[in-house]
Amino acid sequence: MARQLSREQGVTLRESAEIVAEFFSFGINSILYQRGIYPSETFTRVQKYGLTLLVTTDPELIKYLSSVVEQLKGADRC
User: Which ranges carry the HORMA domain (predicted)?
Assistant: First the structure.
């Protein structure tokens, strides 16, 4: 999702919102895992940004987080 952009091109507001929303999603997943809010067996490892990150496999939580992230992406229209 996050693309390498030339210095001349810059980042648009929409691209910035998408990057922040993606970062937010990984952050929330990390908090839910590290604080033990959801059982560790409901998370799987993914490679992103050169790191191993944990994301939920719980369908209801995925649905909820996707909804929240989509609302964040829409915030650039305000």
Answer: 14-78
